[in-house]
Design a protein that fits this description.
alpha+beta; 12 helices; four-stranded antiparallel sheet; six-stranded antiparallel sheet; about 325 residues; 12 strands
Length: about 325
């Protein structure tokens, strides 16, 4: 994170000492001017989110590590008002606001980070679709905005989109192998799994592993607790790289950070190049690409392209290692 350091003589009694719009009482960096979008500034000042729950890269990506359900609860939203949808607040406890900024433009979206409460949907999903977070507050007292919010959420969570409905800013960002967001997202997901899925230093292995993942387990030594069918984390406050990679493997089917990032890059590239995928139904592949699902079981769906991002010597993984080092 790059920030501007202000003179140490800045008056700490002022409401906003560093001039970044964030009130001193909630500003964890009172002498550092944080360049945050006004939406995040509003959320922080109104104590909807804690400033320390914002993950930020130096290339324009931000992830709010507070689930959408918690944000709705804080602003006193119950179920979303709608006559055509039946979304409830608790439906979004695995969804998180993120944004990508390019020059003067910022596009918002939400991504999924789900623990093993639902094996069919475990893993990470990064829809490359625009989301309007201002609808959340507007929908509290307006069914009109409730309908708009519900429609927006349906597009995000179920990928109910037509060709070309992706955000070009978001897709271009994630298609760039130099983008840092994929590693921040993977780290955030690992942290969540350790908090929510780890019991007595063990993380349960899901059912239905592919032959590839079963073979992988035999390569990680004592990290694989075969007796308890779990991944063993020696120190949950400081997991090793091998333990972190094992968590990714047993939740997203990626055996490294590099593989995780490679799969996101692949999805982004094929969101705009879906016509090159082949003779199979194009829309199916467009929807698969635009929602960027990564989870155990997903590899059975993507099929012909798996080698590029699941294989540690695949094209996209090798590219990530060359840029980011072996992770």
């Amino acid at each position: 994170i790059y920030a501007e350091y202000f003179d140490y003589k800045s008056d700490p009694t002022k409401k906003d000492t560093d001039g970044d719009g964030i009130h001193d009482r909630v500003d964890s960096n009172r002498l550092i001017k944080d360049d945050l979008h006004e939406l995040y500034v509003d959320y922080i000042n109104n104590e909807i989110i804690d400033m320390n729950k914002i993950g930020k890269t130096s290339d324009g990506f931000i992830l709010v590590k507070v689930p959408l359900t918690s944000i709705m609860e804080t602003i006193k939203m119950e179920d979303i008002p709608s006559e055509n949808y039946s979304y409830q607040r608790d439906d979004f406890d695995d969804w998180y606001i993120y944004s990508v900024s390019k020059e003067e433009n910022t596009e918002f979206s939400i991504l999924k980070m789900r623990e093993l409460t639902d094996e069919a949907n475990v893993g990470v999903s990064i829809p490359f679709i625009s989301f309007d977070p201002t609808l959340i507050k507007k929908a509290i007292k307006s069914i009109e905005y409730g309908e708009k919010l519900s429609y927006n959420l349906e597009k995000m969570t179920e990928a109910k989109v037509d060709f070309g409905e992706h955000s070009s800013i978001i897709v271009e960002y994630f298609a760039d192998p130099y983008s840092a967001a994929n590693y921040l997202i993977a780290e955030a997901y690992i942290e969540k799994i350790i908090v929510e899925d780890c019991v007595d230093n063990r993380i349960k292995i899901p059912n239905g592993l592919s032959k590839r993942l079963k073979k992988y387990l035999d390569t990680i030594g004592e990290t694989y607790d075969e007796k308890n069918n779990s991944i063993f984390i020696n120190n949950t406050n400081n997991p090793t790289l091998e333990e972190e990679q094992a968590i990714l493997a047993m939740r997203t089917a990626n055996t490294s950070y590099n593989s995780f990032a490679a799969e996101v890059v692949f999805h982004a590239k094929y969101t705009t190049n879906f016509s090159k995928i082949g003779k199979r139904p194009i829309k199916k592949y467009y929807k698969s690409a635009v929602k960027a699902d990564m989870g155990v079981g997903e590899e059975r769906e993507s099929g012909i392209f798996d080698g590029g991002y699941y294989n540690e010597n695949g094209k996209y993984v090798k590219e990530q290692r060359g840029i980011w080092g072996k992770k």
